[in-house]
Amino acid sequence: MRKTALFLFILLILISCGKKEVKQVSQESKTSIEAFALAESIKIAFIKNDTIALQKNSSEEGYKDITANKKGFDTVELTFTPRWVEIENNQIFVNIAWKSTWITSGRRTEGRGMAVFVMDGRPLKLTKILRSNPFVYPEE
After folding, report:
1. Which of 23, 59, 95, 107, CA to CA, is 20 to 30 A from 29?
2. Is 34 helix (H, G, I), strand (E, B) or coil?
């Protein structure tokens, strides 16, 4: 009797621990991942000077924010670190810490800051850049 009870107890433990619970990815999480990917693709398009990709991934106002103060440069390195995402009223606010290194005519200029990318629509598009714009040549 003891052996049977012990066997049933062990069997019960193995059965209850055998199933892995699979959690579904929330819609907010999917939207955040999409927003991070959009910010990265805009950064790559800016570095490559790909105006078609910039226009495709941003609204008219967002495109103006990216290119409004664009100064000629030989090369630019941008590093984006997403910090926070807020979703309200069908708008996504992505807080991004950024660092930049600009090389123009042999001169190296560095910048850093915190930007808020406002995104909207389906598929997502950049509609506005708030705070410190990473696409603007840093002041010296």
Report:
1. 59
2. helix
Q: CB neighbours (10 Å) of residue 80?
A: 19
Task: Show the tokens assigned to 73.
Answer: 């440069």
Report the C-alpha gap between 110 and 139 in whole angstroms: 9
3-state secondary structure (DSSP) of residue 74: coil
pLDDT tens profile 122-135: 889 999 999 899 98
Cα gap 71→69, rounded to integer Å: 6
Q: How high is the pLDDT of residue 59?
A: 93
Identify any residues that bridge with 99 across adjacent strands, giving them in sequence order: 79, 112
Closest by CA position to 72, among listed 49, 45, 40, 98: 49
Number of Cβ atoms within 10 Å of the Cβ of 46: 19
Q: What is the mean pLDDT of residues 96-124?
A: 90
